Amino acid sequence: MPDLLANLNPEQLAAVTLPNEPALILAGAGSGKTRVLITRIAWLIQQGYATPTTILAVTFTNKAAKEMMARLTAMMPIDTRGMWIGTFHGLCNRMLRAHFRDAGLPQTFQILDTADQLSAIKRLMKGLNIDDEKYPAKNLQYFINNAKEQGLRPKDVDATDSFNMKFVELYAAYEQQCQREGVVDFPELLLRCYELLAHNPPLRAHYQARFRNILVDEFQDTNKLQYAWLKMLAGEHNAIFAVGDDDQSIYAFRGANVGNMHDFEREYHVRNMIKLEQNYRSHGHILDTANFLIAKNSRRLGKNLRTDAGHGEPVRVYEAATDTQEAAWIVEEIKAMIHAGAARGEIAILYRSNAQSRTIEHTLVNAGIAYRVYGGLRFFERQEVKHALAYLRLIDNPNDDTAFARVVNFPTRGIGARSIEQLADAARLYNCSMAAAVPYVTGKAGSSIGAFAQLIAKMRAETQQMSLPETVEYVIRTSGLAAHYENEREGQDRLENLQEVVNAAAAFVQEEGYGLDTPARSIPLRPGATNAPEIGLATDDPSVDVLDPASPADPAQNPDTMTPLAGFLSHASLEAGDNQAQAGQDAVQLMTVHAAKGLEFMAVFITGLEEGLFPHENSAQESDGLEEERRLAYVAITRAKERLYLSFAQSRMLHGQTRYNIRSRFFDELPEESLKWLTPKVEAGARWGGRSDNAGWGRDWFARPGQERGERAAYTDPDAGKPLPAFANNQRAADTGFKVGQPVFHTKFGEGTVIALEGSGADARAQVRFKRHGEKWLALAVAKLQAVE
DNA sequence: GGCCTATGCATTTTT
DNA sequence: TGCATAGGCC
């Protein structure tokens, strides 16, 4: 039996071995959060406090869910078949598939992703002749999703003004449309699942009796609905083991409610709040910087990270004249690091908004440095892939008008906008889907649309017995998609992507454990399965023990509640795939601060630390906006393991205009002792207070002798080339007059000893351990430090 | 139907 | 500035 508890620190140990009661684990950045979570699961099972079937572990991203599953099985051989580990949406989908009838859904319901949802809304509004200048589709989408995330159906929304009343009306119409088409959007998955449990006491009792152990990752990111869903499953007696970090809550804009942490603590009378403050990632100066900054936030649960790693390097700060010059400096630093043997993949460049990446990318390209940018189009979001999926969806669920509208005339088959409008009118008139309305349209429109309907019918018939990969391949060919892209000049990539869909289908079949010949559209019996899927649950027969994992009456026990095709389509919607180009390549990593959450790098650049950008100007209008920006900066800082750079530029090209920014207020909230200004620090007052005319300011105010005006010297850090990990004390004492071990005296801090030196000339700094004031970095040009004999 | 131009818009994003 | 989208034109 593996010793799961070996090498845990006392707080981690305490968290892992808590009694089965509500618990809130405040897990700081880099504190071993995932480790605690999975060790907790393994320990519960090992000790006999839980079985795999009693465990439900929920995360936000598929990546996190996969990592959890992988590390768990690596830690301990566990039969994960009965375990529910997944994202909120994935688990809700699973439950809705198992109980589709009780949930009021067709068995083949399809999931709309955000783009599908928007086009469904646009179609709805067009049909109702709604002026989309006055009621923009995007706003309605936001309104609907927001309402759902508050758990509100149209009848529950309080609308006082005519504008909102219209939105409520449209929300209701949208719901009807979705219901008729058999589609659900993302928030609907959660709300529908919540209502399923709320309105069905036997079902609720079943799952409550089953999931005795509920574990939640990134709890600070939960929204109201997700929290309500968790409470529903927990009932009166189940333990929720919530792990999160209020200081890393950066998703308020999409509904995350940090308040859930306080609420959870209060509502469940949490006796077990454990703080994981030991950080295993960053060196001391980096942590001090993070701690100092986040301390400026109010309403924290309170936490201070510590490390055994030593101070390490100071945080380097750089002021550039322009964004271009900032990028040039970054590239020089990176070159030096690479030269010293650093791996490109261990270097990250972070920015607040995507627009900032362009300048940096250009500079990297010119320097010939491999990089990769996070974000952008994901595999299942590509046009050609979505087209292929639309045909597959129509085969599975002909009422899916979003899919129908998408491909009825793609590849083009002479069905124009007018014909489609006629069909949509007919569908509205007969209150049916477009596919069902085909017989009602006549004339030329009727015949071309009729041919399309026949094509779909033929596909449905001919794929009846085909496996999933065969079906996909058949559809790509028969739909004419393949031929279309073969004829297109630049269709080669798209063709390859279509082939990738076939491959993805084959991989899916394999991973899900279906036989390769399993028909895509029947619910198969897998080897070892004893029952056909039963839908509607054991509630029909109260004598059946629904908790018996072997019981055929427990459909949730049987993963085979979806056909391979439905599973694949769900997979495509819920897991849109990688958006990281050239993954695996050793390349410098570019991403937004949001995208960096959860990652770590040897060296991190946080760029564009300017008022208006970071903190972002729009945050000023949001309640608690500045605090969220500060948390964002905190997340960014805590990504760095050994080296951290903070930079800002006096001027920056944004939206085609040059903006002049002042440095971020966050600099005034950082510990001066942990910073090393590579460019001279200019007090805000010195520049702004004394400025009477602004001719040329910001370009050449700091030009040094011998430099051209407006040209910036390469302020490349002379230490950048030190190997990573690098921070052996710099013994150079050449021009400082001090050396390591030297006893010194400071007028304010008293007696101390020099323990490190770095930089030279005006940048020279000494780290001093004072007898009564601890360790500090002092700029020798400024500090009045005297050598003591 | 496809191509071209005019126009508007630009914080962060997973499912 | 640069992209996505919409609308007009051939």
Automatic annotation (TrEMBL):
GO terms for molecular function: 3'-5' DNA helicase activity; ATP binding; ATP hydrolysis activity; DNA binding. Residues 6-283 form the UvrD-like helicase ATP-binding domain. Signal peptide: none annotated. It comes from the Bacteria. It holds the Pfam family UvrD_C. Gene3D superfamilies: 1.10.10.160, P-loop containing nucleotide triphosphate hydrolases, PCRA, domain 4. ATP binds at A27, G28, A29, G30, S31, G32, K33, T34. It catalyses: ATP + H2O = ADP + phosphate + H(+); Couples ATP hydrolysis with the unwinding of duplex DNA by translocating in the 3'-5' direction. Residues 284-598 form the UvrD-like helicase C-terminal domain. One of its GO terms (cellular component) is DNA helicase complex. It is an enzyme of class 5 (isomerase). InterPro entries: DExx_box_DNA_helicase_dom_sf, DNA_helicase_UvrD-like_C, DNA_helicase_UvrD/REP, P-loop_NTPase, UvrD-like_ATP-bd. GO terms for biological process: recombinational repair; response to radiation. Its EC number is 5.6.2.4. PANTHER family: ATP-DEPENDENT DNA HELICASE SRS2, UVRD / RECB / PCRA DNA HELICASE FAMILY MEMBER. Belongs to the helicase family. UvrD subfamily. This is DNA 3'-5' helicase. It comes from Caballeronia mineralivorans PML1(12).
